[in-house]
Amino acid sequence: MPRDNVSRVKKTNTIGILTFIGLRAADSVFQYALLQRGWASSLIERLGATAVSREMIVHVSTGQLQPQYAIIAFMALGSSVKQILNILLVLQQEMSPSSAVIIAFFNTLCNTLNTVLSVWAVTSQAPGPDSFFGIFRRPFLLAGIGFYSAGILIEAVSELQRTAFKKDPNNKGKPYAGGLFSAARHINYGGYTIWRASYAYTSAGWLWGLGVFSWFFYDFAARGVPVLDQYLLGRISLSTARFSLLADADFFVFL
């Protein structure tokens, strides 16, 4: 049986929650500093590679991030905000301090790889010093922003809809198949995969984006979904379980 990475015990662990919130909030500051302070560029150069020039990352006169890198930093911030809201509004299972550290570290690692690759001359998608309105002349960048926004909204909204359903005592023990979950049984996993891949694509191009998409798709298909299905089988009636497992097992509407 694949490993379950989250606790299924419904319990509030205040220390774990605060640890997770603190680490995820710190990550957005860290990702910004990697770009604005030049830490990511220094790392690339220490590895013997070539980083893009400083003026491509920040405005020389103001020190503010160029639009391309401001978007990348904002995507890191968006991931933190979404996950902090999730733990405050959605999470019902216990978040132990050790789990908080591991999950936060994994997300910081993913974000850091995006940030570092975004300044590597080989994978950087930055066009050079540009104005904010220059974004609208770059359709592929707009596509990355659009898919990122759609993915993170799909994940957040679907989980909020399911949480509202679960809070109704009349629905105790029932699986949720309404709202966005009526389109795909694991639509939240699909949303997560989309925004993670779009974030990677915006940072370092289509090859990195495809690699990230493939990794999360495989992980959810081979581990996450089977583990969740097994968990549900132990909680709901046999007839309901059969219906659930025979229903759409995908996490993308179009697959």
UniProtKB/TrEMBL annotation:
InterPro entries: UstE-like. The keyword Plastid does not apply. The chain crosses the membrane at residues 12-34, 69-91, 100-120, 140-157, 199-218. Keywords: Membrane, Transmembrane, Transmembrane helix. GO terms for cellular component: membrane. PANTHER family: 3-OXO-5-ALPHA-STEROID 4-DEHYDROGENASE, 3-OXO-5-ALPHA-STEROID 4-DEHYDROGENASE (DUF1295). This is DNA, SC011. The lineage of its organism: Eukaryota, Fungi, Dikarya, Ascomycota, Pezizomycotina.
